[in-house]
UniProtKB/TrEMBL annotation:
Its main location: membrane. It holds the Pfam family MatE. It is found in: Cell membrane. PANTHER family: FMN_FAD EXPORTER YEEO-RELATED, MULTIDRUG RESISTANCE PROTEIN NORM-RELATED. This is Multidrug-efflux transporter.
Length: 463
């Protein structure tokens, strides 16, 4: 009942395939959110300087992982297309080859980070204590880059194969090990040394190392055809090239989004001060939770589209995209309606003592966000349609336009030219989401009518 095979994906109920594949991914994404909360809890025991340092390091880490994301998405898409084409041996090679390339790149980035951690931290703050703590965290995180690259790339291979339960097991292992080690290494409980922020990053590194080890063990045992064989682990340059070709635009998409978010934080802080910044952060955290189901559904849709194109069923891939978009839009509309009605109680779940101007701004932002929730559900799943077809450059250009051509200009013009204050910044977020949903849906409809999915199916078959 809860298993989905290749035959189900390319010939069974699309709604069932999408929901069953998405369920473990949604659970996994919720676990990642919980992991962040637990990490913050233990780091918070070290004081405000440590919390500020981790917040700063998180920005640096997000930028450092940009090139690695090419392997995560590329591995999923190329694997799914080859599984759909029933090319089992070729499909097996993709995750292992992609993981080897990702680990090599992560090791190179990590080596540079170890040497330049102090200099990198100094670029972002002139507070000596925060800079020192940030550098300590980044030094240990160099190892985490390597283990995360291995774990996440192999996990993407399982997802592309349609074995999202294995992907859940891999990620849960990484998260549980990380959470257990946090207090031991951060605070030095029992026989463990007190490593503080160095220990926090080391716990992450060990956790994802355990996740990568489980992924290899599951592959060695053999699951759903994803099996560790001598042929599969032999690196092939052409496979790396195929993965990078598909995944590079996703890396560019992620990088452009991260830089734009830094710009939005600067505008919010300049226009509304600390109260508006708190509201923006709380709204982002609430939205992160709200979007978890839609993101899981989009990951599942990418694999479903890819496998159907590999099986030369472009019409079914097209239908899968629209079914996923409808499910996501309806689900997020319901969540948005609840958020619009009771914004203050939702804000207090995240910050119990929130009051005054910060609470007023947060209520305003949560209600404005609610108007565009349906749109982000559409954005995620329609992007999955393009990504599953290997047209990841569309997602990249759409995101860059969403943030740089709509969100930032609306926020700047509304706040500074029209003098609408911080509300203009909040509306910039929602309007950019709605605009992206409209143009992506229109472009996908037109592209599918123009034979995009047919060509993608032909290319997948040729590969």
């Amino acid at each position: 009942m809860f298993d989905v095979t290749r035959d189900d994906i390319v010939g069974g109920s699309l709604s069932r395939a999408l929901v069953v594949l998405a369920a473990p991914l949604v659970a996994q994404n919720f676990a990642l959110v919980a992991q962040s909360v637990v990490d913050l809890f233990w780091v918070g025991r070290l004081g405000g300087t440590a919390v500020a340092a981790v917040g700063l390091a998180t920005v640096v880490v997000a930028l450092l992982t940009v090139p690695l994301r090419a392997f995560f998405t590329g591995s999923q898409v190329v694997t799914s297309q080859r599984v759909g084409a029933d090319e089992t041996e070729a499909a097996r090679r993709v995750p292992f080859t992609a993981a080897a390339a990702a680990v090599a790149l992560a090791a190179a980035i990590g080596g540079v980070l170890v040497v330049g951690a102090d200099a990198v931290a100094a670029l972002f703050t002139d507070d000596a204590a925060v800079a020192s703590a940030t550098a300590s965290y980044l030094t240990a995180y160099a190892l985490a880059l390597v283990t995360t690259a291995a774990s996440d790339t192999l996990e993407s291979g399982f997802t592309g194969w349609g074995d999202t339960r294995a992907a859940l097991y891999v990620n849960l292992t990484a998260i549980v090990v990380n959470v257990v080690l946090d207090p031991l290494l951060i605070l030095g409980w029992g026989a463990f040394p007190r490593l503080e922020l160095f220990g926090a990053a080391l716990a992450t590194a060990v956790g994802y190392g355990a996740g990568a080890a489980l992924a290899l063990a599951l592959a060695a045992r053999g699951r759903e055809g994803f099996r560790l064989t001598r042929d599969a682990v032999r690196p092939r340059l052409e496979t790396v090239r195929a993965v990078v070709d598909v995944g590079s635009p996703i890396a560019g998409q992620y990088g452009g989004r991260q830089v734009a978010r830094l710009g939005m934080i600067w505008i919010v802080s300049a226009v509304g001060g600390p109260a508006a910044l708190a509201a923006y952060h709380i709204g982002s955290q609430v939205a992160t939770v709200a979007f978890v189901p839609a993101q899981g559904l989009a990951q599942a849709a990418t694999s479903v589209v890819g496998q159907n194109l590999g099986a030369e069923r472009p019409a079914r891939a097209r239908r899968a995209t629209w079914v996923g978009a409808a499910i996501a839009a309806v689900g997020l509309t319901v969540f948005g309606a609840v958020q619009w009605v009771v914004p203050a109680p939702i804000a207090h779940v995240f910050v119990p003592d929130l009051s005054g101007q910060a609470l007023s701004y947060t209520v305003l932002y949560l209600q404005i966000l609610a108007y565009g929730y349906w749109a982000l559900g559409v954005v995620y799943t329609v992007e999955a349609g393009f990504n599953g077809a290997g047209n990841t450059d569309v997602s990249m250009y759409s995101t860059l336009a969403q943030y740089w051509a709509v969100r930032l200009p609306v926020a700047l013009v509304g706040a500074y030219v029209l003098d609408l204050g911080v509300a203009a910044v909040f509306w910039g977020v929602t309007l950019s989401n709605v605009a992206a949903a409209v143009w992506l849906s229109g472009y996908f409809y037109r592209s599918a009518d123009g034979g995009m999915l047919d060509r993608a199916a032909d290319e997948a078959a040729a590969d």
